[in-house]
Inverse folding.
């Protein structure tokens, strides 16, 4: 066994223990403890420096103290999200439940088209709510995810999919073929589109070009499926609002490259609006822009 394999296995064992501990707690207590760890430990991690640079670039007029307070709230949200991971299968949508929904009619309208559906979102609040949304709408959703660097942690994603009735599709060539099959079969796909993709296309995001994966536009234009924005807002503690917006315009023209850029520019514009509305609930640690 190599040193890397040994370290990966130790990390996986620790993750399993922490996951199990959080799972035995009431969700509100687990969320609060996760938030405490985020504020007191996560905030001190070196990756916070990148978040600090991103904030200074996007909000140059914001005072340093205000930015640091925002970063603390970001880490609180991230810690809560990690702890709530163990409780996703208990999350419910509806009156008196932990998740309220605005815009469910847009899901119904997308279903009425009679083709596959692509939902897109971003790392806002607890972004793991696609599963409960799909279950409440009577849909089976397939989620594309980035496999962890530590292969012994992949159980976190496989168990999440099993708990909320979703198929988890790892990014890559095999995953891309599975995505095409899903859309051909008129199923539902969910993606997070706010991360940098080195071999993507430059698309404006907060006034600067950011390398952006064009797959959503490519698939939508090829298969004619609706592209539906949906994002999560943390209301208080472990309670959320899931907002579904009208499908974006993907009407093709004779300029395919122009259509792809137009669609992805609209996607980034929508995500930017979500972040501006709740900047402390987005994951600013992403390396989203070129250095």
């Amino acid at each position: 066994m190599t040193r890397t394999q040994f370290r990966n296995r130790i990390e996986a064992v620790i993750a399993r223990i922490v996951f199990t501990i959080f799972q035995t707690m009431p969700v509100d207590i687990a969320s609060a403890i996760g938030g405490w760890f985020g504020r007191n430990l996560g905030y001190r991690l070196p990756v916070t420096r990148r978040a600090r640079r991103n904030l200074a670039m996007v909000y140059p007029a914001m005072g340093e103290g205000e930015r640091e307070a925002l970063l603390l709230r970001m880490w609180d949200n991230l810690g809560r999200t990690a702890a709530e991971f163990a409780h996703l299968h208990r999350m419910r949508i509806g009156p008196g439940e932990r998740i309220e929904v605005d815009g469910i009619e847009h899901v119904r309208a997308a279903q009425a088209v009679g083709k596959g559906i692509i939902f897109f979102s971003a790392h806002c609040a607890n972004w793991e709510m696609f599963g409960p949304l799909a279950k409440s709408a009577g849909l089976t959703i397939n989620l594309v995810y980035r496999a962890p660097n530590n292969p012994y942690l992949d159980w976190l994603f496989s168990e999440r999919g099993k708990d909320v009735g979703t198929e988890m599709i790892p990014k890559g060539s095999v995953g891309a073929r599975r995505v095409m099959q899903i859309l051909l079969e008129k199923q539902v796909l969910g993606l997070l589109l706010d991360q940098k993709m080195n071999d993507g296309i430059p698309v404006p995001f907060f006034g600067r070009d950011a390398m952006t994966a064009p797959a959503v536009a490519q698939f939508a234009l090829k298969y004619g499926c609706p592209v539906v924005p949906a994002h999560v807002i943390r209301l208080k503690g472990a309670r959320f609002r899931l907002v579904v917006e009208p499908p974006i315009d993907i009407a093709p023209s004779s300029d395919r490259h122009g259509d792809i850029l137009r669609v992805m520019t609209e996607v980034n514009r929508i995500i930017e609006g979500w972040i501006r509305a709740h900047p402390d609930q987005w994951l600013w640690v992403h390396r989203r822009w070129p250095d």
Q: What stands out?
A: The chain has a mean pLDDT of 89.
